Amino acid sequence: MSTTDAHIDTDVAVIGAGPGGYVAAIRAAQHGLDVTLVERDAYGGVCLNAGCIPSKAYIHAADLAHDATHATDLGLRGDVEVDMPTLQEWTAGVVSRMSRSVEKLCKANGVTLVEGTATFASESELDVAGADATPETIAFEHAIVATGSRPIEVPGFPFADDAVWSSRDALGTETVPDRLVVVGAGYIGMELSTTFAKLGADVTVVEMLDDILPIYEDDVKRVVRSRAEELGIDFSFGEGARDLRETDDGIEIVTETEDGEESVYGADRVLVAVGREPVTDTLELEAIGLEPDENGVLETDAQGRTDLDHVFAVGDVAGDPMLAHAASHEGIVAAETIAGEPAGDADGQVVPNAVFTDPEIATVGRTEAEAAEEGFDPVVGEMPFRASGRAMTADATDGFVRIVADADGHAVLGGQIVGPDASELIAEIGLAVETGATLEDVATTVHTHPTLAEAVMEAAENAMGQAIHTLNR
Questions:
Q1: Which residues pair with 129 in a beta bridge?
Q2: Is the pLDDT confidence value at 307 over 90?
Q3: pLDDT the model gives residue 135
């Protein structure tokens, strides 16, 4: 990071260099604005340094290890030793290269980089406390708040305790615990419980609700839950974590149901993954008269403006969806709005969502129920991966592709995929929704054979009653 000036005048001050902040900074600079980006930790934010990227590296390694030792049906037999320090070193190398790349891109686009923690001094100035204790002042015309989020801490389970892991701690470990209790069955809990089960841990998931992944349809998450159980993961639903006790051979996690019934689980580590909260309490927002809501979220309009027209908020601090790619899109919209360009809005309707479990889940747009609630007459098509030649050759036939369209005109409204490479396949359906494509557009687009992407085409054909490789509804 660079700059030695004690005072900086800038058109746009961006606070936070995560996927919302650095993208906003670069796009604003591309429009000829003078941009200053303040970051207190590392370029790329939590996603790149302690979330999305390292977790996918771990998931990839765990998948390789598991597949190599569970492919006897394919005639493959062997043992795999997981060297966690080497895996950690490799992951750190990936993260470092990507973080340096973000820094270089910012500099190449003319963005001024400042290291430190920024707080609002007034509606037009930031104070920055740098790592070298040299304070700086940034005078700005517009500001973009992109300070991200942090894990929510459960009472009685402080992250300061070595036995209690946040997702960052889990992704920084160089050892696999023999027994791991995961508190929370949302996307972070499910991704990491699956990963550590494949790496050899005995995993128990404790969840207050009655199922995993509450935002997804039952038949979608059922595939993931069934696979997790095959991996040996135990689930305890309807229980909340209440207390943590040390024992002679590790720790005990005490849970309680709504009726007051207690259960005790022995473990070596407990991973708390009950959600994330926006980081807005470090900004001294009272200096500019902005007040987050009860969840710490800064409310914004469709272009990212807060109650102050010249102060914008993007990414996790602006609330759901707390997704890196949503943050980047919001950052672009905010930057182009500031630059006076036609920016559209960041309403998130066609922002895809993905969970990197085994198998993956990915969704975009509307479900059948949502389409009906909004007044559409939905028509639905599905293609099971068990009927896909490519899925069969990959020994990955769990799940399906579902596409939702309007019966009147066949405009594609959304899609849900659970299965191999769902996070990649969802892009085609997302593009169809964004561009107003129809079922016919998807079905008549020639898809390469044999590929998983053919399942999207077949699902569209199924919605029209003319699928070839699966039975029509």
A1: 117, 135
A2: yes
A3: 77
- Token pair in block for residue 377: 């007459």
Q: Quote the pTM value.
A: 0.94
Q: What is the pLDDT of residues 28-49, one digit of tens each?
A: 999 999 999 999 999 999 999 9
Instruction: Please answer whether residues 429 and 415 qualify as being in contact, where contact means their C-beta atoms are separated by less than 8 angstroms.
Output: yes
CA distance 293 to 296: 5
Q: Would you list the DSSP string of 364-430?
A: EE--HHHHHHTT--EEEEEEEGGG-HHHHHTT----EEEEEEETTT-BEEEEEEEETTHHHHHHHHH
**For the chain, how many helices (H) and strands (E)?**
13, 22
Phi, psi of 151 (to 5 degrees): -65, 140
Distance CA 19, CA 368 (A): 31
Q: Would you call the peptide bond into 321 cis, given omega within 30 degrees of 0 as the criterion?
A: yes
d(CA 46, CA 161): 21
Buried b (16+ CB within 10 A) or exposed e, 413-451: bbbbbbbbbbbebbebbbebbeeebbbeebbeeebeeeb
Distance of alpha carbon 429 from alpha carbon 456, whole angstroms: 8
Q: Which contacts (CB < 8 Å, 24+ apart) does range 294-302 have? A: 295/319, 298/145, 302/333, 302/345, 302/346, 302/347
Burial class of residue 325 in the structure, from the number of CB atoms within 10 Å of its CB (0-12 exposed, 13-18 middle, 19+ buried): middle
Share of the chain above pLDDT 90, in %: 95
Q: Are 127 and 119 in contact (CB under 8 A)?
A: yes
Q: Is the pLDDT of residue 313 over 90?
A: yes
The answer to whether the beta carbons of residues 21 and 15 sit under 8 Å apart is: yes
Query: Which amino acid makes up residue 215?
Result: I
CB-CB contact of 276 with 218 (8 Å): no
Three-state DSSP state, 297: coil
Q: In the predicted model, is pLDDT for residue 4 greater than 50?
A: no
Instruction: Specify whether the CB–CB gap between 237 and 211 falls below 8 A.
Output: yes
Asked if omega into 177 is within 30° of 0 (cis), the reply is no
pLDDT at 178: 98
Q: Is 224 helix (H, G, I), strand (E, B) or coil?
A: helix
Q: Is the dihedral of CA 323, 131, 120, 139 positive or negative?
A: negative
Structure tokens at 374: 């909004």
User: What pLDDT does 92 receive?
Assistant: 96
Maximum pairwise Cα distance, the chain: 69
Q: Which residues are annotated as catalytic?
A: 449
Specify burial of residue 84 (Cβ count, 10 A radius: 0-12, 13-18, 19+): middle
The DSSP code sequence of 35-72 is: EEEEESS-TTHHHHHHSHHHHHHHHHHHHHHHHHHS-G
